[in-house]
């Protein structure tokens, strides 16, 4: 009989708490971004396709569906780490042995060699190249994500990926890197 | 308010938390009067010596300038002109190391003095009280006055404050050790400084003007008090000697018990601070009409024989300063611009003095020992006790090391004024300030990157939508007239995957006629059906706006670009560029030759021949051969045209040999020959001949290991010079590339 | 001559870690002298044992971690830990007690957490607690001050006790502790606690021989020694006044309240302040910068809570003294205290 009481008591307690939890889950639901959105904000948005997907968003969707998190060379280790935190998996080195800290580059068209074929314009995922047929093209440096998708299509190889130039605002106090001279 | 003013008038000061008492070392340099340096042999005047934008250069190389003549004119907000410090000739205008911790190059005007030191025409004003507000602001602006205390804030902007100013504070504290430039300036020119203060009073109409001077400068205090006696709105306030009481925010707290809100400016609380040196410059600009071309600089340190203060022309190289005062360097010499707490070391002594340079410190190792190795932080919080901003430097240091940027922001990293008090007291000798500076730059960069990523995403989405729209439009069109060719569409150009021949006569321009013959070959199968033609109309406006921006940016960058093409009308340049790349050392194959025959032409001859050959060698699968060859020849006879005639001949040959097997060769060769016969053109003719040969040999190794992937290109271009009155350009470009790619997936 | 680049500031106060540690060790000297005088040279033997063990442990760990040995050792932090531990344990405890303690303090509490600056807990106190819990008998057999002993023990006798457990005449520590009146002696705190547990009042307990002069002979002097050393530390700006003041004020207030509430079972403020490890704890243990609170407001709270815990455990707990427990418990609370006591940064929270 005592066993019976105990069962009833525990059962009803479980039921009550279950109801409370259920109510709380509905009533106090935290509106969080869908996981794809969260992944997408972590990705660098270079739209370079080096992950094998046509852009950052598709890769974000793929990660949400269980793809590897280490396929984003432009993001470097930092991105992998953030993704690992978000997805609750272990961070791993970048696939393909890419550098951990990618050097940021922008495309630069050697304008006198450009023949105006518009191929790079078609390749650019963010419309950062302007120009018209048989007119010289130029890259909008501020919009270029450094994805280097324009380099390959160029028939005359006139596109260079140049490292982003350091300015006084972006200089990171690397005092050791400054060439010093003799006192003359 | 009334009460506060009464308290201030009684001499009350409100100490700020923290602060340190480093040895002053001021008597080394403040015992003698200011001397004037002999004219240097060279002046390096950077265009930007303040916070804000460059002025626009208004002088040319080789031009003779007079002392005080403007070298730049302000073009945008926040831009301040610079002036010639003496008369002479502009030797050069080029990039020189800047007076900045990074020493990144900065466009500078290099003047060789002629020794005359001849002033340009000056416009002194005897009674500034009769001038209007705008006139005074213009004088301050045109004379190039910028804050001389350290930051270099354009003075005209401060003087034109839109907010009401209650307290005008004159910063005569000079709390950094060693520096005595303001001290001696006050001793010698107190009356002029007071006159400068009165001009600012006229502009700002403050309730009270407070001059803050540290109590270690009794002579300066006495001089300023005597000079300010007639003006009862000026209070000379003595403040205790403690570093960093000369920091703008700390001084405001000290003198008025007010705090500048985080992220705000002093004007937000009705306070404005100017340095004494700046006020002297204002006096000079108004009463004498002289632009800011010289300043007092303390040259001090144990390695200097005659430490003291000097009047130095802006642009004087540090070397000249050191040499004039006598300098015997020690090994591992540091030359610091600024004081020992916030100054920065210079990588070269060939840097010119700028408006913000108040001290050159050349210490030996006894007086300022090199920092020892960094040890572990023991959280003793000596740094927190010293911090004038009440931050927790040791916490910030942990977060900076672990790159926890959110935590750093939470702990108010951006309220750090980088005064160095924390690092000064740290028993573990941790370079705390260095960590904060790096973290600050990285946080700012991260924020910028986030903004950029956001924009890239947006642009990517817009592009995708656009492409979808076009796709849809095309499909609709196909439905309507399935048989119709796309000939009617102007925008659509033929994108052909296999071969294309173009024969295009270029039009000569009136001024310069360029005949170009371009031959192109493609051998790519990939871009066939889904290839979308660019339609820029959607973003045309946006692009147009940004294009200008991009151009400007590029102009700045141009100096560092090595590739310069010598297309010049006036000079005939023959350039031959040969480039060879060899990646991973492979035997380069397939040579191509092309010859271009010079054109007989009176005025111009254009001969262009382009030959291209591509050879691809691909091995994919097992023992299957696939031959595929095409060849095309296109010839274009020259057009007799008055204005332009372009003859293009394109010959192309393709040979494809594809074998999807291992150890099977896949050759793909194309060759084009284009001949352009000269155009009869009166005005100009350019002969260009481009020959290019590419040979690609690609081998994919998917199933088989150790397959070589050779890729070589070579180009030979020969151009015969054009007989032309004005210009003859012959360019020969030869390029050879040999690439060897040996990994799957890594081929182009 | 080549120019050298360096980051500002180019000037330094020439305070150094090793100087800091040396100062603290120096400040221990008055207390050490008092202990030496009162308990004999056993203290010195323990000190040497602790220093040797700590140095060796640190050196070995540094070698294993591939770090420079001497530069780490010379910062003096290991030696300070050794000194503090040696001062806290009974002078005639067996040699292996201090060896285990020093080893544990350096290897487990300090180095396994990442070395100097990374340890969560005060190494000396964590080791002390380990020893107290593992070897309660050895750790509580404090000798009465030598004046009260039946026989003074010579240096060789003390060595023999520490290394063999017995004097050459065959006396154990417990036998040695028998005082002139034939009663086994303990520390004053211990005596009071035991007596009160037996239903005696404080004034009755104070009749015991151990209390027959000022503050139970010895312990008052030891505390006075550490007080002097501590004041020197404050004057030398090695420590801030906040933690000691917090600890002492809190103990004083609590014991005063206790005395007013129950005069019969409360020995009073002066007794609490000058007994046991109060002064050593307040000035030397709780102020260990690595494991203590880092904001000045936080330090006051940290100190006050230590004082409160010390009083509570002394009065109601099972142990006669409680400095080690109190410090360790508050070490755990440091991140929380620091978080909630951040000073107001310049320009924040002001009215525009």
From TrEMBL, chain A:
GO BP, sorted A to Z: electron transport chain
Cofactor(s) named in the record: [4Fe-4S] cluster
Protein family (similarity comment): Belongs to the 4Fe4S bacterial-type ferredoxin family. RnfB subfamily.
InterPro entries reported in the protein's UniProt record: 4Fe-4S_dom (IPR007202), 4Fe4S_Fe-S-bd (IPR017896), 4Fe4S_Fe_S_CS (IPR017900), Elect_transpt_cplx_RnfB/RsxB (IPR010207), RnfB/RsxB_Proteobac (IPR016463), RnfB_subfamily (IPR050294)
Enzyme class, first EC level, given as a word: translocase
Binding-site list for [4Fe-4S] cluster 3: 124, 144, 147, 150
UniProt keyword terms in alphabetical order: 4Fe-4S, Cell inner membrane, Cell membrane, Electron transport, Iron, Iron-sulfur, Membrane, Metal-binding, Repeat, Translocase, Transmembrane, Transmembrane helix, Transport
GO molecular function: 4 iron, 4 sulfur cluster binding; electron transfer activity; metal ion binding
GO CC list: plasma membrane
Residues the entry annotates as binding [4Fe-4S] cluster 1: 48, 51, 56, 72
Sites where the protein binds [4Fe-4S] cluster 2: 114, 117, 120, 154
TM segment ranges: 6-26
Any one Pfam family match given in the protein's UniProt record, by short name: FeS
Subunit comment: The complex is composed of six subunits: RnfA, RnfB, RnfC, RnfD, RnfE and RnfG.
Stretches the record annotates as Hydrophobic: 1-25
Main location: membrane
Entry note: cofactor: Binds 3 [4Fe-4S] clusters.
Localization in the cell: Cell inner membrane
Function of the protein: Part of a membrane-bound complex that couples electron transfer with translocation of ions across the membrane.
EC code: 7.-.-.-
Domain 4Fe-4S, residue spans: 31-89
Domain spans labelled 4Fe-4S ferredoxin-type: 105-134, 135-164
Protein name: Ion-translocating oxidoreductase complex subunit B
SUPFAM superfamilies cross-referenced by the UniProt entry: 4Fe-4S ferredoxins
From TrEMBL, chain B:
InterPro entries: 4Fe4S_Fe-S-bd (IPR017896), 4Fe4S_Fe_S_CS (IPR017900), Ion_transpt_RnfC/RsxC (IPR010208), Nuo51_FMN-bd (IPR011538), Nuo51_FMN-bd_sf (IPR037225), RnfC_N (IPR026902)
Membrane topology note: Peripheral membrane protein
Subcellular location: Cell inner membrane
GO BP, one annotated term: electron transport chain
Domain 4Fe-4S ferredoxin-type, chain residue ranges per copy: 367-397, 407-436
Pfam families given in the database record: Complex1_51K, Fer4_7, RnfC_N
UniProt GO cellular component terms: plasma membrane
UniProt GO molecular function: 4 iron, 4 sulfur cluster binding; electron transfer activity; metal ion binding
UniProt entry keywords in alphabetical sequence: 4Fe-4S, Cell inner membrane, Cell membrane, Electron transport, Iron, Iron-sulfur, Membrane, Metal-binding, Repeat, Translocase, Transport
Annotated positions binding [4Fe-4S] cluster 2: 387, 416, 419, 422
Family that this chain belongs to: Belongs to the 4Fe4S bacterial-type ferredoxin family. RnfC subfamily.
Protein name in UniProt: Ion-translocating oxidoreductase complex subunit C
Species for this entry: Pseudoalteromonas arctica
UniProtKB/TrEMBL annotation, chain C:
Keyword RNA-binding: no
InterPro entries for the chain: NqrB/RnfD (IPR004338), RnfD_bac (IPR011303)
Hydrolase as UniProt keyword: no
Keywords: Cell inner membrane, Cell membrane, Electron transport, Flavoprotein, FMN, Membrane, Phosphoprotein, Translocase, Transmembrane, Transmembrane helix, Transport
Domain of life: Bacteria
Modified residues (FMN phosphoryl threonine): 187
Swiss-Prot/TrEMBL GO biological process terms: electron transport chain; transmembrane transport
Coiled coil (UniProt feature): none
Membrane topology (UniProt): Multi-pass membrane protein
Signal peptide from the UniProt entry: none
Transmembrane segments: 20-38, 44-62, 95-113, 125-145, 214-234, 241-262, 268-287, 299-316, 322-340
Pfam families per UniProt: NQR2_RnfD_RnfE
Localization in the cell: Cell inner membrane
Record EC number: 7.-.-.-
Known partners and oligomeric status: The complex is composed of six subunits: RnfA, RnfB, RnfC, RnfD, RnfE and RnfG.
Its biological purpose: Part of a membrane-bound complex that couples electron transfer with translocation of ions across the membrane.
NCBIfam families reported in the protein's UniProt record: PRK00816.1, rnfD
Protein family membership: Belongs to the NqrB/RnfD family.
Name under which the protein is recorded: Ion-translocating oxidoreductase complex subunit D
Recorded name of the encoding gene: rsxD
């Amino acid at each position: 009989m005592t066993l019976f009481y105990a069962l009833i008591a525990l059962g009803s307690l479980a039921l009550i708490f279950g109801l409370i939890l259920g109510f709380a889950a509905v009533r106090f639901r935290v509106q969080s971004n869908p996981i794809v959105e969260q992944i997408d904000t972590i990705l660098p948005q270079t739209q370079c396709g080096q992950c094998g997907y046509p852009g950052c968003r598709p890769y974000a969707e793929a990660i949400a569906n269980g793809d590897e998190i280490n396929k984003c060379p432009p993001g470097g280790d930092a991105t992998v780490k953030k993704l690992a935190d978000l997805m609750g998996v272990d961070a791993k080195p970048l696939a393909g042995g890419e550098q951990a800290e990618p050097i940021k580059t922008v495309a630069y068209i050697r304008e006198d060699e450009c023949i105006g074929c518009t191929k790079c314009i078609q390749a650019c995922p963010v419309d950062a190249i302007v120009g018209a047929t048989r007119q010289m093209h130029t890259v909008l440096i501020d919009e270029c994500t450094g994805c280097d998708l324009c380099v390959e299509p160029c028939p005359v190889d006139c596109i260079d990926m140049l490292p982003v130039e350091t300015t006084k605002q972006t200089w990171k106090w690397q005092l050791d890197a400054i060439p010093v001279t003799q006192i003359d | 308010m009334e009460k506060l003013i009464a308290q201030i008038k009684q001499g009350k000061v409100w100490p700020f938390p923290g602060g340190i008492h480093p040895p002053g070392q001021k008597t080394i340099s403040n015992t003698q009067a200011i001397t004037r340096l002999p004219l240097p042999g060279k002046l390096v005047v950077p265009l930007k010596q303040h916070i804000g934008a460059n002025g626009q250069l208004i002088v040319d190389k080789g031009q003779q300038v007079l002392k005080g003549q403007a070298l730049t004119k302000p073009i945008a907000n926040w831009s301040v002109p610079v002036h010639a410090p003496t008369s002479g000739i502009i030797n050069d205008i080029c990039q020189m190391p800047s007076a900045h911790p990074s020493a990144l190059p900065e466009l500078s005007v290099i003047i060789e003095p002629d020794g005359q030191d001849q002033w340009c025409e000056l416009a002194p004003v005897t009674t500034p009280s009769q001038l209007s507000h705008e006139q005074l602001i213009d004088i301050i602006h045109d004379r190039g006055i910028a804050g001389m205390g350290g930051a270099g804030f354009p003075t005209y902007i401060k003087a034109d404050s839109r907010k009401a100013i209650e307290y005008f504070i004159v910063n005569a504290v000079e709390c950094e050790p060693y520096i005595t430039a303001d001290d001696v300036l006050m001793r010698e020119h107190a009356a002029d400084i007071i006159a400068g203060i009165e001009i600012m009073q006229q502009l700002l109409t403050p309730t009270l003007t407070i001059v803050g001077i540290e109590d270690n400068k009794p002579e300066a205090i006495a001089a300023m008090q005597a000079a300010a006696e007639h003006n009862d709105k000026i209070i000379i306030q003595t403040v205790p000697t403690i570093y960093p009481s000369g920091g703008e925010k700390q001084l405001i707290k000290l003198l008025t018990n007010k705090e500048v809100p985080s992220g705000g400016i002093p004007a937000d609380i009705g306070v404005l601070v100017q340095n004494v040196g700046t006020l002297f410059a204002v006096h000079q600009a108004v009463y004498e009409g002289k632009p800011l071309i010289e300043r007092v600089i303390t040259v001090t340190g144990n390695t200097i024989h005659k430490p003291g203060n000097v009047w130095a022309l802006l642009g004087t190289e540090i070397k000249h300063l050191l040499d004039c005062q006598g300098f015997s360097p020690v090994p591992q010499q540091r030359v610091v611009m600024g004081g020992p707490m916030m100054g920065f070391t210079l990588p070269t002594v060939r840097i010119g003095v700028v408006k913000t340079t108040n001290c050159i410190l050349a210490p030996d190792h006894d007086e300022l020992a090199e920092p020892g190795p960094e040890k572990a932080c023991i959280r003793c919080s000596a740094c927190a006790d010293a911090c004038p901003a009440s931050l927790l430097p040791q916490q910030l240091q942990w977060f900076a090391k672990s790159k926890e940027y959110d935590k750093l922001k939470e702990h108010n990293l951006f309220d750090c004024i980088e005064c160095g008090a924390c690092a000064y007291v740290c028993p573990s000798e941790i370079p705390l300030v260095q960590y904060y500076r790096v973290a600050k730059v990285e946080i700012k960069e991260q924020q910028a990157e986030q903004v950029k990523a956001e924009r890239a995403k947006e642009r990517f989405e817009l592009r995708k939508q656009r492409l979808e729209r076009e796709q849809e439009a095309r499909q609709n069109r196909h439905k309507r007239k399935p048989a119709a060719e796309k000939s009617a569409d102007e925008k659509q150009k033929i994108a052909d995957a296999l071969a294309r021949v173009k024969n295009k006569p270029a039009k000569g321009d009136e001024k310069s006629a360029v005949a170009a013959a371009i031959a192109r070959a493609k051998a790519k199968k990939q871009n066939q059906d889904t290839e979308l033609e660019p339609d820029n109309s959607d973003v045309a406006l946006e692009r147009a706006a940004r294009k200008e921006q991009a151009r400007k940016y590029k102009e700045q960058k141009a100096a560092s670009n090595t590739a310069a093409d010598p297309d010049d009308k006036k000079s005939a340049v023959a350039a031959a560029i040969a480039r060879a790349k060899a990646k991973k050392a492979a035997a380069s194959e397939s040579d191509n030759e092309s010859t271009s025959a010079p054109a007989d032409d009176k005025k111009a001859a254009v001969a262009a021949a382009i030959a291209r050959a591509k050879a691809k060698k691909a091995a994919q699968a097992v023992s299957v051969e696939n031959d595929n060859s095409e060849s095309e020849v296109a010839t274009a006879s020259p057009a007799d045209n008055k204005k332009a005639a372009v003859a293009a001949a394109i010959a192309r040959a393709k040979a494809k040999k594809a074998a999807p097997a291992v150890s099977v060769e896949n050759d793909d060769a194309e060759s084009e020959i284009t001949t352009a016969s000269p155009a009869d053109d009166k005005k100009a003719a350019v002969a260009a001949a481009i020959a290019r040969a590419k040979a690609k040999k690609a081998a994919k190794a998917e199933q088989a290991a150790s397959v070589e992937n050779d890729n070589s290109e070579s180009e030979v271009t020969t151009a015969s010079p054009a007989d032309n009155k004005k210009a003859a350009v012959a360019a020969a470009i030869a390029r050879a590339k040999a690439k060897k790619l040996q990994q799957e997936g890594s081929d182009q | 001559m080549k120019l050298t680049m360096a980051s500002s500031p180019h000037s330094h106060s020439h305070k150094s870690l090793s100087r800091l540690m040396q100062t603290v060790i120096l400040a221990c000297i008055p207390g050490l002298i008092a202990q030496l005088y009162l308990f004999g040279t056993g203290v010195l033997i323990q000190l040497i044992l602790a220093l040797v063990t700590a140095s060796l442990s640190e050196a070995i760990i540094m070698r294993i971690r591939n770090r420079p040995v001497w530069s780490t050792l010379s910062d003096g932090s290991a030696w300070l830990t050794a000194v503090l531990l040696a001062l806290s344990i009974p002078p005639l405890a067996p040699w292996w007690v201090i060896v285990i303690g020093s080893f544990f303090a350096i290897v487990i509490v300090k180095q396994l957490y990442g070395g100097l600056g990374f340890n969560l807990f005060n190494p000396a106190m964590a080791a002390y607690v380990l020893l107290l819990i593992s070897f309660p008998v050895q750790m509580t057999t404090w000798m009465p001050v030598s004046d009260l002993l039946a026989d003074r023990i010579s240096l060789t006798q003390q060595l023999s006790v520490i290394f063999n457990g017995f004097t050459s005449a065959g006396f154990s520590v417990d036998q040695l502790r028998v005082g002139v009146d034939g009663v086994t002696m303990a520390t004053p705190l211990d005596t009071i606690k035991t007596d009160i547990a037996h239903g005696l009042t404080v004034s009755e307990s104070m009749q015991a021989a151990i209390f027959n002069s000022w503050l139970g002979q010895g312990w008052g002097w030891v505390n006075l020694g550490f007080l002097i050393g501590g004041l020197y530390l404050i004057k030398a700006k090695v420590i801030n006044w906040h933690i000691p003041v917090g600890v002492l004020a809190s103990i004083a207030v609590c014991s005063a309240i206790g005395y007013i509430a129950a005069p019969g079972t409360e020995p009073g403020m002066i007794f609490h302040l000058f007994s046991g490890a109060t002064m050593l704890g307040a000035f030397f243990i709780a102020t260990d910068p690595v494991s203590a609170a880092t904001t000045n407001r936080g330090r006051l709270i940290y100190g006050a809570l230590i004082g409160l815990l010390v009083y509570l455990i002394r009065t109601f707990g099972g142990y006669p003294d409680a400095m080690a427990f109190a410090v360790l418990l508050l070490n755990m609370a440091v991140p929380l205290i620091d978080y909630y006591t951040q000073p107001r940064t310049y320009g924040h929270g002001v009215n525009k």
